[in-house]
């Protein structure tokens, strides 16, 4: 069975991969001989691993491999993505992959023909946390970072991921891969796989790959832009797209709890011309939260620029589907585009002042809990645990004295 699923390859070991609530990849390795039993009966794991950052419970859960995701990972090893179930065979409500699957099923108005692509950015750092190079956007270079990027793109291709482009980003040591349009689950799986492969290959070279939203002062942040590819060849389809975008803008604050899920995420937002600060849309402005552009003439790319690379891709895509669905069902009205940054044009010059995005994780969590239409699309147990997790992170950060505070105040008071 394992050879058939592996396209004829032989695996000595198989890595069972799953995501916790924060989007961190977890894994259990089993020998080839145990794989068929894992497929039929599952593999027990400690359920507290799915609690994300805030470990609170001890309960056994069951990993069940998704055979469509089984691929060779090299050195006679395979990897397969798993779903989580409880002892009675029910999907575990805190499994982000299950949350996305349920959202796809419950948002058929939007998800039926939904395809999405993504841009994933990260920094390559040396052990002293300095960037691996001093290059910039689209630099033509043959340094170790660029060579590692090429090998990483090849590895991703060997794992079945369709990489459409890979290049140096704006910051020194900052890189990006673009993933081809896919269904929601395939795109989320691909983003999770890409992050683990990038990190593993950097580690093998003695480097650090970080997906922090903004790991270094005075340098650009790392985004995970999601392109929703929607049909737009006739007026009714264009109206559908406009309502999807309006839904995303209407729920922009709550969406940040999923797309900007760390304290550090708000070092990226509200910073510079290419990071959104308000719930606006545009055709060309890189400061807009959403950008619309034509793809092949028959489809429109709805690029959501609010998510950073630390976000859980399953929950980001689920939240975007939910926001789009509420926009379509509620016949939400799309405001006029804003092709300049709000800071550049000034709020006084805007006919209808756009909503400012949250400036902190605490604000984003509060806005999530206050957005009944959005959170009603999710399992209430997931929202409860997820929001508790975020607020625990806020509490932990508030008791920490930062280097900036010490430099700013230590000698002055």
TrEMBL record:
What species is this protein from? Ferrimicrobium acidiphilum DSM 19497
Nucleotide-binding is among the record's keywords? yes
Chain ranges of the GS catalytic domain: 96-413
One Gene Ontology term of the biological-process aspect is: glutamine biosynthetic process
Q: Give the Enzyme Commission number.
A: 6.3.1.2
Q: One short Pfam family name for this protein?
A: Gln-synt_C
Domain (GS beta-grasp) ranges: 9-89
Q: Where are the transmembrane segments?
A: none
Gene symbol here is glnA3
Tell me which UniProt keywords the record has, alphabetically: ATP-binding, Ligase, Nucleotide-binding
Q: Note whether Nucleotide-binding occurs among the keywords.
A: yes
Q: What class of enzyme is it?
A: ligase
Signal peptide positions (record): none
Q: Which InterPro entries match?
A: Gln_synt_N, Gln_synt_N_sf, Gln_synth/guanido_kin_cat_dom, Gln_synth_cat_dom
Q: What is this protein called?
A: Glutamine synthetase
What the record says about family reads: Belongs to the glutamine synthetase family.
- MF annotations from Gene Ontology: ATP binding; glutamine synthetase activity
């Amino acid at each position: 069975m394992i050879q058939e699923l592996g396209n004829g390859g032989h695996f000595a070991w198989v890595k069972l991969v799953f995501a916790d609530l924060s989007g961190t990849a977890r894994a259990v390795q089993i020998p080839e001989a145990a794989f068929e039993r894992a497929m039929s009966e599952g593999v027990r794991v400690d359920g507290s691993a799915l609690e994300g950052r805030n470990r609170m419970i001890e309960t056994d859960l069951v990993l069940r491999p998704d055979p469509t995701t089984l691929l060779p990972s090299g050195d006679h090893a395979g990897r397969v993505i798993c779903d989580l179930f409880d002892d009675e065979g029910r999907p575990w409500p805190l499994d982000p992959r299950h949350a996305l699957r349920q959202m796809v099923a419950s948002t058929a108005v939007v998800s039926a023909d939904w395809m999405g692509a993504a841009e994933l950015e990260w920094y390559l750092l040396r052990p002293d946390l300095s960037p691996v190079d001093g290059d910039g956007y689209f630099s033509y270079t043959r340094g170790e970072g660029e060579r590692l990027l090429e090998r990483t793109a090849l590895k991703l291709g060997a794992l079945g991921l369709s990489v459409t482009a890979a290049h140096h980003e704006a910051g020194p040591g900052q890189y990006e891969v673009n993933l081809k349009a896919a269904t929601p689950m395939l795109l989320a799986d691909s983003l999770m796989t890409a992050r683990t492969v990038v990190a593993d290959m950097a580690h093998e070279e003695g480097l650090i790959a970080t997906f922090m939203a903004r790991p270094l002062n005075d340098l650009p942040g790392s985004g995970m832009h999601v392109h929703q590819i929607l049909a737009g060849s006739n007026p009714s389809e264009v109206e559908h797209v406009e309502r999807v975008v309006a839904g995303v803008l209407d729920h922009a604050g709550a969406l940040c709890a999923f797309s900007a899920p760390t304290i550090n995420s708000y070092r990226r937002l509200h910073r510079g011309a290419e990071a959104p600060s308000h719930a606006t849309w545009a055709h060309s402005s890189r400061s807009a939260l959403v950008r619309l552009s034509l793809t092949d003439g028959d489809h429109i790319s709805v690029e959501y620029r609010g998510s950073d690379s630390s976000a859980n891709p399953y929950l980001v895509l689920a939240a975007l589907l939910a926001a789009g669905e509420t926009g379509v069902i509620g016949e939400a009205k799309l405001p006029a585009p804003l092709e300049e940054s709000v800071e550049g044009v000034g709020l006084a010059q805007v006919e209808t002042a756009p909503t400012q995005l949250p400036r902190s994780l605490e604000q984003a969590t509060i806005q999530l809990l206050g957005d009944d239409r959005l959170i009603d699309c999710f399992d209430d147990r997931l929202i409860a645990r997820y929001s508790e997790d975020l607020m625990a992170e806020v509490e932990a950060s508030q008791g920490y004295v930062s280097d900036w505070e010490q430099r700013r105040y230590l000698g002055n008071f």
